[in-house]
Amino acid sequence: MTEIWFTEKQTDHYGITMKLKETYVREQTDFQDLAMVETEEWGTMLLLDGMVMTTDKDEFVYHEMVAHPALFTHPNPEHVLVVGGGDGGVIREILKHPKVKRAVLVDIDGKVIEYSKRYLPQIASGLDDPRVEVIVNDGFMHIHDHKNTYDVIMVDSTEPVGPAVQLFTRGFYQGIYDALKEDGMFVAQTDNPWFKADLIRNVNRDVKAVFPIVRTYWANVPTYPSGLWTFTLGSKKYDPLEVDESAIPEIDTKYYSPRLHKAAFVLPKFVEDLVK
Ligand code: SAM
Question: Is 156 a catalytic residue?
Fold first, then answer.
């Protein structure tokens, strides 16, 4: 039988390749090229514009690390917003926090939500929870229409291409600041230092121009470019490095832990240099 492989080009001359078992969906939505495939190594995989978004096998790393550092830093995260995140993985992790009364997901592309529910049920499992509100809209618009509303905002967007470009601009971080309550905080995925050092440097600069407390942390996401993935947290009041980790409860996770909470903020020197 002929083998079929998918290659994600991560730079113009480097990529990762994986053997496919089946293609479930391939569709040009109103916003992006969406594919849902079954891979030998990583299970079911969501691709947008040819980029790996999430996979059965390694999704827990990214979704836990977007959600838990902020939610165990803010003392009372009742109202949480996810910008993007249409696969539902971050929402699933947010729901593990009983203090959260309302979790709003705003993804620009309803097809991502629809196909994630159908083909990635264990990732999208929380989208029908009574505490969750799912809105199909541009996250940029939503934050400007909801000032002083959220305790925590998580930006789980695609890379700054297509509809996500505006989610990585300085105006967006001011919009996030204004949508947060006076002691709110936000976290955004901020790509990898091997191929996107300038993005990390620029986002860090832009967030520091808006927030008094800015911290960068990282995790290993094998199916993302380079595998070393960063996150940038901006906070009006609470510092994740001042949390008493002995007070953080053990919850149902496979990557995040009370021991890893502060350790994740210890950066390799070449990454430290980007965010000094
Ligand atoms: N974890 C993935 C990553 O780091 O690349 C992101 C996963 S999630 C599927 C990315 C989502 O961002 C997509 O569903 C896409 O539709 C959404 N998105 C892109 N631009 C957006 C915008 N302006 N407003 C809301 N959602 C947006």
Answer: yes
Cβ 84 under 6 angstroms from ligand 1: yes
Whether 75 and 211 map to the same domain: the answer is yes
Q: Average pLDDT over the chain, rounded to whole?
A: 96
Atom of ligand 1 nearest to the CA of 189: 4
Q: How does pLDDT run across 92-126, given as a tens digit for each residue? A: 999 999 999 999 999 999 999 999 999 999 999 99
87 is in an annotated binding site: yes
CA of 35 to the centre of ligand 1 (A): 14
Counting the structural domains of the chain, the total is 2
Alpha carbons 48 and 184: distance in angstroms, whole number = 30
Q: Which residues of 224-233 are buried (b: 16+ CB within 10 A; e: fewer)?
A: bbbebbbbbb
The predicted structure's pLDDT at residue 39: 98
Q: Which tokens belong to 163?
A: 């509809």
Same domain, 74 and 9: no
**32 annotated ligand-binding residue:** yes
105: containing domain: 59-274
Contact 220, 227 (CB under 8 A): yes
Query: Do 136 and 17 belong together in one domain?
Result: no
Does the beta carbon of 216 sit less than 6 angstroms from any atom of ligand 1? no
Using alpha carbons, list the distances in angstroms from residue 230 to 199, 268, 272: 11, 11, 11
How confident is the model over 140-179, as pLDDT tens digits?
999 999 999 999 999 998 877 777 777 777 789 999 999 9
Q: What is the pLDDT of residues 24-60, one digit of tens each?
A: 999 999 999 999 999 999 999 999 999 999 999 999 9
Q: Are residue 33 and residue 73 in the same domain, yes or no?
A: no
Q: Are residues 16 and 132 in the same domain?
A: no
Q: Which of 158, 165, 226 to mutate to test the pocket of ligand 1 (most atoms within 8 A of CB)?
A: 158
Q: State the pTM of this model.
A: 0.97
Q: Quick one: 113 and 238 in the same domain?
A: yes
